[in-house]
Amino acid sequence: MKRNGNIDIFALHPTQILVLGFAILILIGALLLNLPIASQNGQSIGFINALFTATSAVCVTGLVVVDTLTYWTTFGQVVIILLIQIGGLGFMTMGTLFALLLGKKITLRERLVMQEALNQFSFSGVVRLAKYILIMTFTIEGIGAILLSIKFIPIYGLSRGIWYSIFHSISAFCNAGFDLIGNFRSLTPFVDDVLINMVIMSLIILGGIGFVVILDVMQKKNFNKLSLHSKLAITMTLILISVGFFVILILEFYNPDTMGQLSLKGKFLSALFHSVTPRTAGFNTLPTDKLTMASIFFTIVLMFIGGSSAGTAGGVKITTTGVVIATIVSVIKGKDDTETFGRRIPRDIINRSLAIIGLALGLVILVTMILSITEKDCSFIGIFFEAVSAFGTVGLSLGVTSTLSKLGKIIIAITMFFGRVGPLTVLLALAQRKKENKGILRYPEEKVIVG
Amino acid sequence: MKRNGNIDIFALHPTQILVLGFAILILIGALLLNLPIASQNGQSIGFINALFTATSAVCVTGLVVVDTLTYWTTFGQVVIILLIQIGGLGFMTMGTLFALLLGKKITLRERLVMQEALNQFSFSGVVRLAKYILIMTFTIEGIGAILLSIKFIPIYGLSRGIWYSIFHSISAFCNAGFDLIGNFRSLTPFVDDVLINMVIMSLIILGGIGFVVILDVMQKKNFNKLSLHSKLAITMTLILISVGFFVILILEFYNPDTMGQLSLKGKFLSALFHSVTPRTAGFNTLPTDKLTMASIFFTIVLMFIGGSSAGTAGGVKITTTGVVIATIVSVIKGKDDTETFGRRIPRDIINRSLAIIGLALGLVILVTMILSITEKDCSFIGIFFEAVSAFGTVGLSLGVTSTLSKLGKIIIAITMFFGRVGPLTVLLALAQRKKENKGILRYPEEKVIVG
Ligand SMILES: [K+]
Ligand SMILES: [K+]
């Protein structure tokens, strides 16, 4: 690690760089939000709350202990949206990088070591990738902001309308779920607004499906030519959104506290929105705590599944879930191999999927148990929901976040961080991996990114 | 399926025989329990309740809509214990058979077809196996009953004491959890009784670990010489009991509604008992609904994991969980193969483990969602607990069972049946498996039974 007395960051494993980098970003964010000028009441919010908010922003979660509009000053809000943008871009870039390197069977460290040996310190490839992602992100967020401004400028005036459009476009594309609507209302005032719903949902889905898939679709323009990863991610997204839409619509159709009073248009829009948002945007247009028990539990399941790998979404990921479903189908069919879309999913991906789901379940169970000790006044479902929301970096809550004890806040903050950098990534960062090349003859394979 | 106009049961897949056989047994049990002479009030209990009780007995679950002592006549109680004994023996025999056949890479059907071809209809091997299991079961249950009678005869008198000893010995070894203590109290009156606790726990563990492991231990007498399956089952049992003991002890130590008032001996005994019973016996010595929220959630996790394959326990099984843990460790270590105890776990076992856990999670989620619609007055944790208890054929309850609606009872009965015959077995029974032999060169392997 050390060379010439200095820590050599190039000698760190890339996952260690990721974990370290985001920890530092969170710390800087916490210090800024801790300043009195960040709070409207002119007093420091206190370090735990500042740390919680910074973690929630960098990890693009959206769980908030104070209302973003009414508590923070514009300075505070700018810090938050910058943390979201840097966090979101960072995870997307690092995720894409890892995914591409995984495809090429070469680790970043190996590449760096290789470059070092060749005295070629040019990061041209990495820089070009980051540039692509930056351009794509700003393009999509720009279009989103322009579309949102059609509604927001008439409502909030020119300057505040533009600010709202930019803030919510970034927050939606980064799957962050922070909002400036006020009083923890999220997007409930816009429950039956077609434009706002459609723009926000499109941003959520594009951000959540990740750069690799978007690039693949832009290049190939034909579903059959896409990579297995893209096929699986797109199919799972469509299935989960459709299933979620029908389940939420049926369960809430007559619920007087949610959809009951809405027009048919409002019912359809809000059902679609509440199918999209748990994976893992965190906005809501219906009051989450008023949903039926079945919808709440279903939302927990969607939050746990999350979005696509190498994007801004959290959870165990839809591709991981896709691998599990493909494996179940293969086992039932009596096949030894996990097959889907005419391809065989390699064994290490299946092992990895199993490990990710096992670790995620373990983490959620542990956090729920600890919270049920520290937060004695909360209902079990509230705590369970909060734990999964934090792990999946979703940001939906049944109202537990603002009542959390100090210890509870620290636990949720740690859960968001683990949920974001991935339980597996954290562990891989700790353990030095030794790659062994074995000379086994195998059939041709294609990789899927999971986790 | 048909030959000479008759259904040829030998042409059925063994899992189809298993499902059909137990469905018939449940139906016979329900008809008997539906008779007025089964109820102490001289009136038929009604078919839904009779079916629920018969399913609970045959599937060795122990969830009860009426108290076994105070509601049923001796006739009814005898029917129940016979259903438990036949169900328990049946599952143990069938499970062992499948496990042995799996090890020999030949299905029962193939063997039967082979025998048919050779005009050898002698089931000598199968009969000998069933005989072994029968002898072992009656020996263990006999010893259990004699030990229990030391306490039960002084308390309940000679004839009732003997009846209680036999009933509870069978119920414990079969992991059924039915009791004759009265008023839904289960074994709470014996919370600090060393003999009762130790005997019941030993019976639960022996029944839950399965015949294959017991036979293996009796033959080899040396841990290192045991099969991988036995090593994994024994290790996981010890780990889960130890972890469970400490977790329950810490969480309940000062809980005034459970352990708070007990002596240190009572605390240790009840912590141990409540570590053993969720996997998946269903007796309780502490009031389940008075446990802390953290203990209740922890109990749900233990119920989901369950006992060993090819025994009387339910759940996804400890060996399945062991495979998942071994896979997680292997992935973290960067190994492509899942290794444990110096052996490589073959790929199809890992796929199967993934499928079992995926299907089990799916079933529990679905049942919880449906129950939260049909049982509006119950708390979420009560419903979730009930769904997992039914799936794991545990029989613990937070009090939901006796308040279930008719639809709720049917759903729980179906869940018990699915949980018992195994989601995978049911699906395998429906789908005809086609075995393909592929000529891939592989390293030597050893099988583990999962599910
Ligand atoms: K989020
Ligand atoms: K049981």
From TrEMBL, chains A, B:
InterPro entries: Cat_transpt, TrkH. The keyword Cell membrane applies. It is a multi-pass membrane protein. Its main location: membrane. It holds the Pfam family TrkH. This is Trk system potassium uptake protein TrkH. Keywords: Cell membrane, Ion transport, Membrane, Potassium, Potassium transport, Transmembrane, Transmembrane helix, Transport. GO terms for molecular function: potassium:chloride symporter activity. The chain crosses the membrane at residues 12-33, 45-66, 78-102, 132-156, 162-182, 194-214, 234-254, 291-308, 353-373, 379-398, 410-431. It is found in: Cell membrane. One of its GO terms (cellular component) is plasma membrane.
